[in-house]
Amino acid sequence: MTENTQPAVLTMSIAALRILHTEKGTAPEFTAGHSLGEYSALVASGAIAFSDAVKIVRLRGKFMQEAVPVGEGAMAAVLGMEREQLETLCEEISSGEVLTPANFNCPGQIVIAGHAKAVARAIERIKQEGKKAVLLPVSAPFHSPLMRPAGERLEKVLEEISLRDLKVPVMTNVEAELNTLKERVKGLLVAQVSSPVRWEESMRKMIEKGIEQVLEIGPGKVLSGLMKRIDGRIETKNLEDLQTLKEIL
Fold first, then answer.
1. Which of 98, 108, 109, 218 has the maximum number of C-beta atoms within 10 A of its C-beta?
2. Tell me, what CATH number does 83's domain have?
């Protein structure tokens, strides 16, 4: 269940971050996180207390799961299509249902989300056009307009949370811009639930700011792989276990 997975991933990521800080004293110039990862980025920036973040992401997962009955929504990864081409395709075959890009991950990799039947039609059309589309094993159509009810519920939870000044700028999913204002955090997190994750734009913006090395903290190497496709000149490392910690130290 996503309501259990989200706090587990957050906890693992922050634990790894704290060990790195203790052992090496590493401090980032900027932080960023993909979807759920934006909460880890906000904790790392000092904006949200870890205990509050765990509470928020558990409820976020619950709200997102309950926004659409299981089986009625879906997501698919599309490979080899340009953004404009895919946006046009989604519009053409939506037939009144929700079908929209949800994650702009890297060149040639965009995730779409929406009603399950619309996503199925999109997969069929994409394959007919000689491109690849893969249905993702997820429990809801994240980052699509179908998640707006979840955002409304999340907003009420966020009203109860106190934020602190950001010590480090955070690259936002919704705008692909650096945010330094705590007053904007809650609104951006509410919008994030039902808006596309503009990851490729976010990484390019950080590169423009002079970033030469990125460190992915948390389970897996997915974001490191995306960065290599966005700009292979950027040094990438990941921290997820004792072995990767030794490599960094």
1. 218
2. 3.30.70.250
